[in-house]
TrEMBL record:
Organism ancestry: Eukaryota, Metazoa, Ecdysozoa, Nematoda, Chromadorea
Source organism of the structure: Ascaris lumbricoides (Giant roundworm)
The protein's name: Uncharacterized protein
Length: 46
């Protein structure tokens, strides 16, 4: 059985990891959306 502070540390660590993954994921989504828009506008110009 983990002590109170140990389990808190673990939860905190997981939360930080999750936030990092989330921001990385959002960055990828934003980048792909921007790229899609650029590709579409380039195709429209032709």
């Amino acid at each position: 059985m983990m002590s109170m502070s140990e389990s808190f540390e673990a939860a905190n660590y997981l939360e930080k990891k999750k936030q990092t993954n989330l921001s990385g994921f959002l960055l990828i989504v934003c980048t792909s959306m921007i790229t899609d828009t650029q590709v579409k506008s380039t195709a429209d110009m032709e």
